[in-house]
Amino acid sequence: MFFAQKEKKENNKKNRKVTKMKKEMNLKKQIFLRGLLGIPLGITIGYLITIVLSLVWGNGYYSPCVPSLASIMGSEIGAVVLQTALCALLGVSFGATSVIWQIEHWGIVKQTGIYFLINSIVMMPVAYFSYWMEHTLAGFLQYFGIFILIFAIVWGVQFVRGRRDVDAMNKRLHGTRQDKDK
Question: What is the pTM of this model?
Answer without folding.
Answer: 0.76
